[in-house]
Amino acid sequence: MTYLGRIFLLTTILVVFVKQSQAVCGYESCPATKPNMVNIHLVPHSHNDVGWLKTVDQSYYGYLNKIHHAGVQYILDSVVSQLLQDPQRRFIQVETAFFAKWWEVQSESMKKVVKKLVNEGRFEFTGGAWSMNDEADVNYQGVIDQFTVGLKFLNETFGSCARPRVGWQIDTFGHSREQAAIFAHMGYDGQFFSRMDHNDKDTRLEELTMEMIWDASESMSGVNLFSGMLYNFYSDTPGFCFDILCTDEPIIDGDSEENNVEERVDHFITYAKNMSEHYLTNHIMVPMGGDFQYEDAKVNYKNMDKLIKYINERQASGSKYNIFYSTPSCYLNSLHQSLESWPNKTQDFFPYAHEKNSFWTGFFTSRPTQKRFERDGNHMLQVAKQLSVFANLTSEQHNEDLDYLRQTMGVMQHHDAITGTEKQAVSDDYDRMMYEAIVGASNNAKDALRILTNMPNGEFESCLKLNISECAFTKDGADNVVVTLYNPLAHKSTQYVRIPVKEENYQVTNEKGNLVPSEVVPVAKEVLDLEYRSNNTQHELVFKATVNKIGSYYIKKVESSENSQTSSIKIINPRESDDSETVVESSLIKLVIDNQTGRLKTIEMNGVSENIVQNFGFYKTHTSCAYTFRQDGDIELIEDDFKFTVYQGALVKEVHQKVNEWVSQVIRIYEDVNRVEFEWLVGPIPIDDNLGSEFVTNFKSGISSNGVFYTDSNGREMMKREMNKREDFVADLSRQPVSGNFYPVTSRIALQDDSKRLVLLNDRSQGGASLEDGALEMLIHRRHLFNDGGGVGEALNDTQYGKGLIARGKLYLVLDLVEEKNTITEREAEKELFLPFWKFFSKAGETGKASTKSIPDFDDLPKSVHLLTLESFTENEILIRFENFLDKSESNVISFNIRDIFDSLGGAAIRETTLDGNLPLSEMKRFKFHAQNSGNKPSTVEYSTAQHKSLEADRLDDASKFVVTLYPMQIRTFIIQTN
Fold it and tell me: What per-residue string of b and e applies to 852-883 under the rule 16 or more CB within 10 Å gives b?
């Protein structure tokens, strides 16, 4: 019978077959195991990348299979039909993005069948986020958001039986501690993965530490997660891939001369025996699946049925092996019931290497412009979500546009998206999706601002090319332009605003009509020379703005500088000076530039003076790829002197440096801003020598860091790193001593000694290291000619407009004393740099009517409280998250009352949930696992619940019911039911 014929037959019997049973899902539905036997949990699964070698749609529809055989819609069709054949069969679904796309086009009868399978625990969601996110390059906000989207879909579609209990991070290229903390805060019982450094895995296999309790926070007690490493990989047992994409032998039984049952069973039992010797309990988990497998699931299940049958038949003759269909959650349940105790893990699993010449540290930086674009997408998402709440945007179009950006951002967290480890055509498709989604959500923002401001006819246009100092709205002139600024942070913020303009005189006023100091600064020549940049505007208007939530500033062209409040810029050309150095100074910072070399020489700030020299250089390579960074030799520094010009204004001082024909930089200090900004422009990286390059910048100081430095974990807690050392094993750095010391830097990297501290903050995820005492190095751009090595099948040779990719980005340097709580300013800067003002542009017209809706004031919250999330959750619900963004060394427990916020949002009732927003916190019940160093083993299974009482209240309750307490680094999530 043809495939379509089977599906037609299936759908005709659904109504007869389906009888919605009482839900017996979750751990209650797990198969029985046998004591005194090796219980083999066979886990059918298909790993479906949300874009990699093919685009999301190509992978779903099964298009362009000559590139890669992948057709997710057929996988789901086929799996469901086969699960109906035998109630013992199981399957796990991971990527909600693909499942939601499939679900949308199913008939009602098919939906009933799937709901029955879910309610019986036979079709189980594992992971459950929109995609299987990367763990190195992502910021925690994007991860939480995409889990919220995925789990909300599952909850609304199926209810509690669809809620995953286990994380399934099997293909990410290393694992972060913050990801484990996120799983714990969402109420997950554990997670499983399949990639770790080969030396680490060898050690763990020998010491029986493949499964562990991960202590996932230094600041919060009790935040731990059971984590297990798969024995082989996430693909099938070697020799037992029964999928149509594989060539392993099927199991042949019956009277055939080809009968191989005994041989195949012997082989599998030998594998199971070897595997069981490396784990602590009498349970082992064997994944049966791989990339885009199960398109013809009948083949898979028919052979697995035979494997189960013939292995279990041997029990009658004394075999101690018991095999059955299972899921990762059922396997974890068996481990929990074993009452075993487990080793601890405290650091993370970076960097990952699958062999000694292959550290996967290149993807920390691959495709730097797309990594920045992802940040822009998150920025707009937070702005549009907040504005949509304030303006009560509820139309179908508004919801669709916002959901599209939510889902697109979920796709961008995927471990082949933000990592830059996809084919170029897929990268281009990600860019298309991002652009369309940002534009769609910006329409929400426009509509909201027309309601919330006194400009009902304002254009509120966004400029998406500000990264190259270009804005279509001001290219023909900035006269009578209104810049409306939206601040997504909880607290009032003061930031400098830069607007591309022509070289004219301007007057800037605030909403009260007060003049605001400003100045016009030239755009760097190297930016003006970009072939694809329109050069109508060759300057930027700079002014300082202070905004609580929404603030507008008015720009008007005037005839002379006397009427403008615009200060003049002094130009200093060091070639016309006899001095050996140039001093560039604000009230807070002093920079000294060496006139001979054009390089930074000294920085003074925060009462600290330190010689700091910045270099640019590259590691030449012929075998680096999108994943791996393999240097062929030592760093090659750019030794030539830099040409530079200084522009000194009252608000901003800039040093424009030309390093060579493809590298330039602007160093900036702003008045009253306590950090130094380095805006780099790199590319096209030359490939004339037919070699690739890892392009880096480093900052060398005299700080005695003794090989120790610190990097953030997904924008949250800092991780201690030590050159050439790992927490649990000895890494093989014989071939790659440089790349093996790079770590992911999502927001911050730092080093210090007893008195001084040097910090770099960045505007996108990058690889970072400290390869010498007192030095920080950032990998900022990459270009390679090697035809991959990790499966992509093409080189990482980004091009744009027919030439090698040019990237522009920023680093921010802070030099400070090592004193208690001094790092608070770094935390505050992280938030401001990650979510700065979003700029909206309109033409100044007649003032419209007054605002129609007041905006809740969050500025009264304690200064360490971050408004992590504010968004519409359902038609009558709002999701809100508060975060204490300081760690235990920077903050104490804080309490505040949210009754005023609740009332201003039209609250009728409020309830607290787990981090993802989809489970009442009062219902969270997690497996409790005991550590080996905690003493005696437990005598019965134990569980843990929330460490604080869940907040639940309604409008009739006293204000005292609305007190929120936050420990350092704690996030609390609430759903507000509105009127």
Answer: eeebbebeebeebbbbbbbbbbeeebbbbbbb
Show which of 350, 374, 401 is a domain's final residue: 350
Domain harbouring 905, CATH code: 2.60.40.1360
* Residue 8 in this model has a pLDDT that exceeds 50: no
Q: Are residues 639 and 653 in the same domain?
A: yes
240 and 285 share a domain?
yes
Whether residue 533 is found in the same domain as residue 614: no
**CA–CA gap between residue 438 and residue 458 (Å, rounded):** 19
As a whole-number percent, the residues of the chain with pLDDT over 90 amount to 92
pLDDT digits (tens, 9 = 90+) for 409-465: 999 999 999 999 999 999 999 999 999 999 999 999 999 999 999 999 999 999 999
What's the rounded Cα separation, in Å, for the pair 308 and 294? Answer: 18
CA distance 757 to 754: 8
C-alpha span between 152 and 148 (Å, rounded)? 6
557 and 585 in a single domain? The answer is no
Domain of residue 923 covers 865-978
Does 387 lie in the same domain as 255? no
| pLDDT number for residue 564 | 65
Residue 644 in any domain: the answer is yes
Identify which of 345, 578, 487, 452 has the alpha carbon closest to the alpha carbon of residue 850. 452
Write the pLDDT tens digit of every residue in 848-881.
Answer: 444 446 899 999 999 999 999 999 999 999 999 9
Q: Are residues 575 and 544 in the same domain?
A: no
Same domain, 290 and 388: no
**601-630 burial code (b ≥16 CB/10 A, e <16):** bbbbbbebeeebebbbbbbbbebbbbbbbb
Average pLDDT, integer, range 120-137: 98
Is 670 contained in some domain? yes
To which residue do tokens 């009560």 refer? 392
- Between CA 501 and CA 472 the distance in angstroms is 10
Q: How many residues does the chain have?
A: 979
What three-state secondary structure class fits 285? strand
Mean pLDDT of the residues in the chain:
95
Helix (H) or strand (E) holding 757: strand 756-762
Report whether the peptide linkage leading into residue 684 is cis, meaning its omega lies within 30 degrees of zero.
Answer: yes
Is 171 a known active-site residue? yes
pLDDT above 80 (res 611) = yes
Tokens of 355: 């062999």
> pLDDT at position 21, please?
47
How many structural domains are present in the chain?
Answer: 4
What six digits make up the tokens of 148?
A: 């919220």
Other Cβ atoms within 10 Å of 514 Cβ, number: 9
Options 49, 77, 145, 171, the catalytic residue = 171
Q: What are phi and psi of 414, to 5 degrees?
A: -55, 150
Secondary structure (H, E, C), 840-878: EEEECCCCCCCCCCCCCCCCCCCCCEEEEEEEEEECCEE
Distance CA 179, CA 373 (A): 22
> 257 Cβ partners below 8 Å, 6+ apart?
none
Does position 14 have pLDDT exceeding 70, yes or no? no
Q: Is the backbone peptide bond immediately before 744 cis, with ω within 30 degrees of 0?
A: no
